[in-house]
Please model this.
Amino acid sequence: MTSQDLATYDGRDGRPAYVAVSGSVYDLSDSSRWVEGNHEGVHQAGQDLTEALKSAPHIRAVIERFPLAGTLEEPNANPHANKKISMWPILIAVFVLLGLMAIFLR
Model:
């Protein structure tokens, strides 16, 4: 889901309470600590709490025990980011260029 989708799961008015942590989205709807999607008056459901969790008084495992509701897509995710680039075309071009330089610079 996108950040915009996540925002609709704010726990208010009977809606489910979802939060994202490190790309995973958790359903905190059944937690007594997330009444109306609000946690201790500090955090509201429907948000990515990855950074906030770093300074939380509890460990990440507390969130991870709740049901996984999905994954959070990065807004500007590059679909080609995980593709490996072959170095062979670059190496061939370098050798061709070096060969041409050797011929013309004699």
Remarks:
- The longest strand covers residues 18-21.
- The radius of gyration is 24 Å.
- The mean pLDDT is 87.
- The helical segments are 3-7, 50-54, 61-64, 88-104.
